Amino acid sequence: MNRTLRIGTRGSALALAQTGHVADALRAAGADVEIVTISTPGDRSSAPIAEIGIGVFTSALRDALANGEIDVAVHSYKDLPTARDPRLSLAAVPPREDPRDALVARDGLTLGELPAGSRVGTGSPRRAAQLEALGLGLEVVPLRGNVDTRIRKVRDGELDAVVLARAGIARLGRTAEITETLEPIQMLPAPAQGALAVECRVDDVDTEHLLQSTLDDSASRAAVAAERALLAALEAGCSAPVGALADVVEDLDDQGAVVHRLSLRGVMAAEDGDLLRASATGDLTAAEELGRALAAELLDLSGLAAARSEGRS
Ligand SMILES: NCc1[nH]cc(CCC(=O)O)c1CC(=O)O
């Protein structure tokens, strides 16, 4: 291809870092690329995400792509709405970063070392619900802003700790500031956390092929597909309290041969704030079915939980 690919990105340090990696990989494959920064309403507002809605970071980028202002859009996958955009093709899911959440706390402390009453910042209902369920007596404080702003609140002494996606901190080269990486058993990440979504126009088959062959990682794509199908089936949107994580695991088939399968875990907050958990394993080629099946199981559990709390009252 001898045209220059215009890659659109948000202007935050995190977005520029992750788009830079995508651009480098495309250049290494011989493509001619240029980066175009697009400002989104999500970048201009400081209201809680739950109020301004899912898609605030991504729809301006998607419109610019559909209109032909750019040829490729790079998103944090977890910020995308679950509904497909018929104008666009999800051409590549690059190898996923560590999907876990991370704690940045004062004085090098871990979650378990934070004294009761410590103020822990997060704007995410998913993180808040899971922090509260740990029973450590932590005070969860609402928080928004970019990675730098959030970490600064700990440095300034305004908060004792913040919880962030490890991937975001890593992409900014600041992993030294992490005081604990949270295990999924305590804190399941957001569906698709740590993954990127690289889109092009649905009719731009040359670009689609280039992105797919240069960037796509099938294991990351399958894992994220399962997590997102679970989220979509729970109709929860980005900031609702749903966590999910799929891992590719080795299993044995009927003949005793090693096969790769998907192991999916999910968590959801019931109405009374209790956490409901479920897990299941399925074929790599049926990721979305696995996600939907686990969502159905969580919905059954939430029905049982609701009936139980009614019985109590
Ligand atoms: N909601 C904002 C957002 N979108 C993507 C990331 C981090 C990188 C990623 O998960 O890919 C973050 C920051 C955070 O949750 O701490």
From TrEMBL:
What HAMAP family is this protein classified in?
Porphobil_deam (MF_00260)
Entry's cofactor comment: Binds 1 dipyrromethane group covalently.
Q: Does the keyword Transferase apply?
A: yes
**Which keywords accompany this UniProt record?**
Porphyrin biosynthesis, Transferase
What the entry lists under PANTHER family is as follows:
PORPHOBILINOGEN DEAMINASE (PTHR11557)
- E.C. number: 2.5.1.61
Function statement? Tetrapolymerization of the monopyrrole PBG into the hydroxymethylbilane pre-uroporphyrinogen in several discrete steps.
Give the record's subunit note: Monomer.
Q: Which residues carry this modification: S-(dipyrrolylmethanemethyl)cysteine?
A: 238
Beyond the main fields, what else does the record say?
The porphobilinogen subunits are added to the dipyrromethane group.
Example of a GO MF term: hydroxymethylbilane synthase activity
Q: What family is it from?
A: Belongs to the HMBS family.
Q: Name one GO cellular component term.
A: cytoplasm
Stored Pfam families: Porphobil_deam, Porphobil_deamC
User: What is the source species?
Assistant: Saccharothrix variisporea
Give the GO biological process terms.
protoporphyrinogen IX biosynthetic process
| Known catalytic reactions | 4 porphobilinogen + H2O = hydroxymethylbilane + 4 NH4(+)
What protein name is recorded for this chain? Answer: Porphobilinogen deaminase
Record domain Porphobilinogen deaminase N-terminal: where: 5-207
Q: Which SUPFAM superfamilies match?
A: Periplasmic binding protein-like II, Porphobilinogen deaminase (hydroxymethylbilane synthase), C-terminal domain
